[in-house]
Amino acid sequence: MKISIKILIIVVFLGVAILLFVQVLKDNNISPLLNDETAVKSQDISTLPIFTNGLITQGIELDEIGYHSFSPDGKYFVFTGIKDSDLIPAKTYLVKLSTGEVVKLPGVLLRGFEDSRLVVLFKAKDLVLYNIATGESDNIATDGNIFAGALSPDGTKYVFNTLEGVMLYDRNTKKTVAISTTQYDGATAWLEDSNRVLGFKDNGKKIFDAGNGRELGIWDINSKTFSPLMPNTIPVGTIRNVTWVIPDTVARINTGWDDSSHDYLLNIKTGEIVDLGDTSSSLMGGMKDEPRMDLFALVRGYGDLDSTITASVYRGLDKTTSAIIPSKYIRENLHIVDQDSVIYIRKHLSPTQTIDNTALIKLNFKTGAESVLKELEINVYNSLSLNIEQKIWVVSSKNKFFVGKLP
Predict the structure, then answer these.
(1) Under DSSP, is residue 370 helix (H, G, I), strand (E, B) or coil?
(2) Does residue 204 or residue 173 have the better pLDDT?
(3) Among 348, 364, 360, which Cα is nearest to 393's?
(4) Mean pLDDT, residues 80-105
């Protein structure tokens, strides 16, 4: 599906996932990043002007804030937004939390912000890799059909999926090469050796409406070859994304077509698998990988009055905790606080199927109780971010941020 302004705006508001690493470019070599962001850990970032004084005081005019997120290391904050009257209404900004400095980025956010060294953007038909440390960008010419990408752990290579197959950009040579040439191929989760990527390959079997089937395996980016991983391990052939729960060991495989979704947890070393079942009700943000803690959380979505809604946390393949929570709610923007708690935005549906209450919620798995952290405005778009290190949450409503600390 070709990227358009409308699709870019949707991407801005839905946000999505990619383990990245940014390093300083020097003399055509990638050297380790030297940063001065250690002050963030001792600073109360909830008092920064961008959060407390309003966007307009920072010279930013937006009609609505979209996706936002802290970087995994807690040192940066990225947010997107819409200015309806502008020719290109979608905007992306980066906040350096040690100083509060705000930088407008050269493009629209392609996916989520799950790397502490790169922000990946899209501008016209260029894929833009914005180096946070230097403020410089690599602009990669494409035909506009970009779906997902990931930076290698050593920071030298960026792999991305297109309608024409899997492409690899070398940050040293500034050249792009094709790893595969089939639209149903994908490479999404780097192994730590920076030479192999867990992903999937077209198996040539036609699946009605969903194109061709895909098999799980590992791409070798040097030989441009694919090695199937334990054939028939994943019974569903419509693999569309692979992410790490425990890097190099436990992966989450998302399958499905259109608005359907089915997920699995797989230990790629032993072949042991956990079938998570239908996850269609969690597509709007009820699933979260947290490789920094080896955790994965799943919150089922809306259900009828008599239905059972469950929330669970897994460490690797093992379900460590679970809770039954009230139905008749939509839950979105899930974030893991720790093994015993998560936060999310909860919307209550009235008997007439309209939203009559919206709130930021913390779920305590030890007690099974949901507690309200903040009541939110009804029937507006909300996004949620969590700085795990400082246990600070940020929620947006229209063009305002609201900030708080977890109890």
Answers:
(1) strand
(2) 173
(3) 360
(4) 92
Q: Is the predicted pLDDT of residue 77 greater than 50, yes or no?
A: yes
Instruction: Give the per-residue pLDDT at 1.
Output: 35
| Token pair recorded at residue 138 | 């690599």
Q: What's the CA gap between 166 and 187, in Å, rounded?
A: 7
Q: What is the distance between the alpha carbons of residues 128 and 109, in angstroms, rounded to a whole number?
A: 9
Q: What pTM value is reported for the model?
A: 0.86
Residue 28: both structure tokens together: 């055509």
Q: How far apart are the first and last CA of the chain?
A: 44
Amino acid identity, residue 260?
S
**CB-count burial class (<10 Å; 0-12, 13-18, 19+) for 211:** middle
| Contact of 74 with 97, CB cutoff 8 Å | yes
- Could you tell me whether strands 329-338 and 318-325 are parallel, antiparallel, or unpaired per DSSP bridges? unpaired
DSSP secondary-structure letter at 350? P
Assigned token pair, 236: 């569903």
Burial degree of 264 (CB within 10 A; 0-12, 13-18, 19+): buried
By three-state DSSP, how is residue 157 classified?
strand
- CB 265, CB 274: distance < 8 Å: yes
**pLDDT confidence tier of residue 349, bands split at 50, 70 and 90:** confident
Residues 265-297: pLDDT tens digits? 999 999 999 999 989 888 777 899 999 999 999
**The residue to which tokens 């690899």 are assigned:** 168
**What's the distance, CA 98 to chain centroid?**
23
Mean pLDDT over residues 10-38, rounded?
A: 34
Q: Kindly tell me if the per-residue pLDDT of 298 is higher than 90.
A: yes
Cα separation, 147 vs 124, whole angstroms: 15
Burial class (CB in 10 A: 0-12, 13-18, 19+), 389: middle
What is the arithmetic mean of pLDDT over 185-197? 96
Res. 200 pLDDT band, cuts 50 70 90: very high
Nearest-5° angle of CA 343, CA 347, CA 349? Answer: 150
Give the Cβ contact number of residue 67 at 10 Å: 25
